[in-house]
Amino acid sequence: MIATADEELEARIVRTADLLRGHRIALLTGAGISTDSGIPAYRGEGARTRSNPMTIDRYLGDEAARRRYWVGGHLGWRAFASAEPNAGHRALAGMEADGFVSGVITQNVDGLHLRAGSSHVIEVHGTMRRVFCLHCGQVFDRRDIAAQIEESNPWITVPENVRLAPDGDVLPESTDGFVTPVCTVCGGMLKPDVVFFGEYVPQDRFRAAESLLRASTAMIVAGSSLVVNSGVRLVERARRRGIPLVIVNHEPTRADAWADLTLAAGTSEVLPALHALLGAASNERTPTT
């Protein structure tokens, strides 16, 4: 009898649970874990690819590009703020609470792991929740900057007023007259606390991610194609240590050849099932009184 795709996936999840049982697992998550929360990925099947992503040099040196970024960024932040954690996020929070997961290293800036209840989260690419001044260093809550944007640009609250290109980027005519937010302390240029293209991950964040990985005895990559070098560097460290490595991603990744197991499936499907299997095995070992 030929096994169905569902049966094959179920068998691979069981093998994953057997491989990881008794380990302290570090998670590395990417955009794929948040797609079921309505936040689009930028890679993989059905992803919206931007032809001209914002770089740090363009942001700092091109006022028109900076205006376009803030218009699009404001709309994106509103979508992020309304998104809710999905089954994959909740499963990882539960696995941490049950002692199976040592922490989450995420490439995402949406904050959904924290909202799901995970407590040890390292946001290596930053967070959309904060904005800081490049001149004086003052840090702001993104909600306060959003209020400043909408007060200065009330038309932006009507989605039809902002025209988008097919790749999802904001068309230049939609930024005409847009008033860019500034630091309310010194009037300086603001920047979201996220890593732009062309920027390096801050050393303290990457060291924290390395520390979490060293304290773990296994690793799962969930929802990341591992195109970004910071993620590959962490997986390379796990490979050098020879600890179990599992990759859960719809699309092939750069590290599939290093993995003990790969699961071509969604994180919202795999992670809750894995949590249930690990929990069931833990309960079987717990003596009754």
What does this structure look like?
There is one protein chain. The chain is built from 9 helices and 9 strands. The longest helix has 20 residues, at 63-82. The protein has 2 domains: 10-39 and 86-124 and 202-250 and 259-281, TPP-binding domain (Rossmann fold, 3-Layer(aba) Sandwich); 48-82 and 126-194, 2-Layer Sandwich (SIR2/SIRT2 'Small Domain'), CATH 3.30.1600.10. By secondary structure, it is of the alpha/beta class. Residues 164-168 have low confidence and may be disordered.
CATH C-level class of the largest domain is Alpha Beta
The total domain count is 2
Specify the helix fraction band. 25-40%
- Could you tell me how far the N terminus lies from the C terminus, measured between alpha carbons in angstroms? 44 Å
Tell me the name of the CATH homologous superfamily of the largest domain. TPP-binding domain
Record field, number of beta strands? 9
Share of β-strand residues: 5-15%
Looking at CATH, which topology of the largest domain would you report? Rossmann fold
Rg from Cα: 21 Å
Helix and strand content put the structural class at: alpha/beta
Principal-axes geometry comes out as elongated
- Specify the number of helices: 9
Q: Could you state the order of secondary-structure elements as H and E?
A: HEHHHEHEEEHEHEHEEH
* CATH architecture annotation name of the largest domain: 3-Layer(aba) Sandwich
Largest sheet: 6 strands, parallel
Assembly state (oligomeric): single chain
* Major sheet: arrangement of strands: 3-2-1-7-8-9
Identify low-pLDDT runs. Answer: 164-168
Average pLDDT score: 89
